[in-house]
What we know:
The chain has helices at 3-16, 26-39, 41-48, 59-89, 95-98, 105-119, 123-128, 130-137, 140-151, 154-162, 169-182, 185-188, 201-214, 220-228, 241-252, 269-279, 281-284, 288-301. It is mainly alpha-helical.
Amino acid sequence: MSISENKAAEFAERLWNNPSLQGLSPLQKEEQLHTFIQTNAAVLKPTMASKEFFPDLPWQEVQHLLMNVITSMANQDMHTLQETLLDRFISFDFIYSITDSSLSNAEFKKIISEYLKTILEKPESRREISGPLIAISVGVVDRYVSQIISRQQYVSIVLTKVQHLRIAVKQIADFIKVTMLLRPLVHYFSPNNSRIQYITSAYADKVLQESRQLLKFMPDILLESGINSLLSFQEYPHIDGISRLASIFSQRCRHLKTGIQLDKGAETSDKSWFSVARKNYRYFGFDLDMLYELQNIASDNGW
């Protein structure tokens, strides 16, 4: 490592360990610090040009160096996070109840692990995997699915009577988690610098064909579930319940910061988010009835 790289690493590490970033995932930290460097260029530029840092480097090169170091730090933490998630928070046993796949749990884990490395290479899909990883790691999916099934209301009916899932609660949660992880396939195969809110069925078919080449041994039912979570429920009301929930949980956790202490009397984080999502359900393509039920669950449990 060069002297410049060492200096950049030291400065980036101070930024990375800033207490204000506690409770953020590696990708959230990366995004915030990249934005910080870009928006505070006028302040940082003279400091970085001082003798202590990079007096002989132009600002654009310094900016590129700092952002690359921060991305490397995020990648290092991401490797640990994804291995933990696949070891502790997801089982692929549910697949044997909905497909005739002969792959083992370990083989599915390896496929997903390699897939995550691949989608992290493209900014569009890298940005979109943040929400799913947070939702899985903090237990959002598990706690809501448990409540959904025990209440036997609208969402449970969609999953068990409409989608005809005859699997255990834990397996339903794992189905949603894998669907969420596969959701960024749409962004991976999208044009560079694109911002996709939701897609058409024709585009979903196109992404499915490309995804089959990338994930040759992943069952179609899982690929379709992930890709279809980017369809708008208003345009495609027959989307399966797993995909609808994957969309909601992914977007709920996109900017989630854990460990925040609420002021007395303040509305809880989940309840507040579902309230806002209900007002904007058409824009996000959400199932409004699902949002109502999830908000009630959040309210009843103080989430």
